[in-house]
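Homework help thread (please don't just give me the answer)

Our assignment gives two proteins as sequence + structure token strings and asks us to describe the second one. The first is just a warm-up. Here they are:
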Amino acid sequence: MEKIKVGRVFKYFAKPMVAAIQIEEGALKVGDKIAIQGATTDLTLTVESMEIDGNPIQEANTGQSVGIKVAERVRPNDFVYKVVED
């Protein structure tokens, strides 16, 4: 299993349980497996949907900020990695 850094969490919205993620390098698509890791965060999930300004999208590229639904709390500055299975 290989992890490729794609971005970082910059905000967490507790009620809808959504992580706001800045894509810093590469691209992220619906269906990708990601890991969100930080000092107290260790979460792996499959991206089921992404939004930009409330509009659903299928892919986000470098420089874009997206919202992704998460199963547990994440924190600003947690790193986001794309997980590549062997």
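The one we have to describe:
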Amino acid sequence: MTNLKKNIDHYMTVKGIKMYSHLLHEIALKLGYKGQDAYDFANKEKANFSKMLKGERPLKYEYIIPLEKIFGVSLARMMDEDSYKMPIGKEMTPYIKGYRFYAYLDDKDLYEKELSKLLSKENKPIIHETDEFGKTFLDYVVEYNAVNGVRFLHDFYKIKLRFWNNQFETEPRGLIWIHDKAVEFCRIVANIGDLNLFNDIFDSYYLFASSGFYLPNSLYSQDDFFEIVLDHDYLFNDLFEIKTYTHKLNRYEQRTQGRDIMTFSSINPVINGCLNYALKHLDKYKKQAVEILKFGIRHNTRVAEGLNVDLRRIFIDEIGGLRDRTNNDVYDIAISAKVEGVKDEEINKLVAQLPNFEEEF
């Protein structure tokens, strides 16, 4: 007898379900079948279901969520009763439904009333834990395109992309990992169309201020991120806004610099990445490249005229940030174009008019 059959037999007994045909009828109802169609489904699938329980056929993917709903346990527990290291019995309540259950339903009320209240063995929010498959809730948000799950993570846990290797920080203090799907998650958030939500989660100013922005593993250094911004007008237009940003220094910086915060005003730090990606793909993004270059001609001129500092103290970092050599203070961001191999006449004329700080400093 396979573990799956043994455990499903047990859960059927706990739930008072006497026959597989009755269980299949419940599955059919969860799948949306009604009336006689649900009974027809149960009769048709009975032989296949028996083979699945015996291990002669794989369990159909469409059965997983209905079974988890019916029994109130995850598929992993159905496969292996030790997966949660808890005894199986009628007293086993509340059942742990699993991240997949919540992300699949993507129900705002379930997130707020149930998932937000689940705690780990250490009495901390369960949201920071991985499940029996080594996945976080964030992984399932991506898998099921769970838009309400995005807002839940933002509203309840203040989720923010914080580190160069794409870890997300939360409040209460903790980290959420995502398995090589940061770009997919970013795309889901971008498609929601909420600028404040996007900027709260993907705060490009943060890594710029903390000097980790240009690291190659950072999402903000990847072509996929630039493409997402260029493809969404509301994100693209936000590149040009001059914003004041306050960055809290870490303990080492506080000791060496004798201050707690750094404050600067600048345009969005990803603007040069977006420009240079657009220049490589003019067939699709020439309009955006032209707009950034025209803006850059005015912007670089304004920045150069407004600098009230010894130019020998200034250096330009990898993304166009004008920084002070003595304390890493940020004065602004200059538009910088990489046009090697670009043969477009209009683009090259605009680049020729662009004040070039690298030549001046």
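TA reply:
I won't write it for you, but here's a hint about the kind of observation we're looking for: The chain is about 50% helix and 10% strand.
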